[in-house]
Every structure is written in C-alpha cells, then in structure tokens.
Amino acid sequence: MEPITNKRAYFDYEILETFEAGLVLTGGEVKSIRGGKVSLGGSYVIVKNNEAFLLNTDIPPYQPNNTPAGYDQHRTRKVLLKHSEIKELLGKTHKTGLTIVPLKLYNKNRTIKLLIGLGRHKKKYDKRETIKKRDVEREIGCTLKR
C-alpha cells in the first residue's frame, strides 16, 4: 500500500510537530484504505473530552453494492493517541492557536496509522514563496535533464 498524503496540508500549514496515531475503523474501511480510496483533503482533528476525533475524511465503501445500510463515508472516526499526547495537543491548540491536521495515512505492520501534524496556518505571502520555490526547483530539474 502506498501512503495517502494530504498535499494541501503541507501547502496551507507550516508543520511544527508530528504524531503517529491509530484509527478506529470498520473492516470495510480498512480494505478501502488499503485499496487507496481515501481523501484527506479538508479533514482535520479535534480534541473533545480528552479524546481525539478525525472529521471530514472521505472513505468510500470497499464494495458499493455490498455496503451495510446506513454507512456514512464522512463519519467521525476516533483517533487513538496516548493520554500525554492528547494533553500536549490540547494545550498547544488552545494556548497558541495551532491546528491539528492529518498529513498521511499509511500501513505499518498490518495496521493503519495516521500521521497528524501540529501546524500554523500560512499567510498568503508564505504560500507565494512556496510556489516560487517549487517553480525554481522544477526549472533547475528541467535544465539538468537537457
């Protein structure tokens, strides 16, 4: 399985710290993730009642014709973190105004792991700087190929 990355998160946020977490999933969702049918765009993590939850992640059914009745592909999923990590995330998000963003979904030792990042939202000029840097690297790569 190739990791599913949230490219938009790297563009919109300056990632300061990362955490590896597990997810509470159903069997069909695991198969769908291993098949690469996941979209992390627009998803985010919140901490409520000392528990972390992943919101707005699109995991379509593995077999659309054989899906259980009432399956919601955008449902809220629980994120499995250590209690100390949850406290650290909660403190940093409330105190400094940082956001918890899902960065990558991957397979590790037959389990699905979620890499979440603590990020600060980039300003418009930071995004322009990122685009310029990417264009320069692309031009350098093209000239080296010739």
Walkthrough of the structure:
There is one protein chain. 34% of the residues lie in helices and 33% in strands. It has helices at residues 7-12, 27-34, 83-96, 124-145; strands at residues 4-5, 13-23, 44-48, 51-55, 77-80, 99-108, 111-121. It has a 7-stranded antiparallel sheet. β6 and β7 (111-121) form a beta hairpin. The longest helix is centred in the last third of the chain and has 22 residues, at 124-145. The protein is globular and about 55 Å long. It starts with a strand and ends with a helix.
Round the mean pLDDT to the nearest integer and report it.
Answer: 90
CATH topology title: Small Protein B, Chain: A
Helix content: 25-40%
Strand residue percentage: 25-35%
* Poorly predicted sequence stretches spanning 5 or more consecutive residues: none
Number of domains: 1
Rg from C-alpha positions? Answer: 17 Å
Oligomer: single chain
Give the CATH level 1 class.
Mainly Beta
Describe the global form: globular
Question: How do the strands line up in the largest sheet?
Answer: 1-6-7-2-5-4-3
CATH architecture: Beta Barrel
How many distinct helices?
4
Distance between the termini: 34 Å
SSE pattern: EHEHEEEHEEH
Q: Class by helix and strand content? A: alpha+beta
What kind of sheet is the major sheet?
A: 7 strands, antiparallel
What is the number of E strands? 7
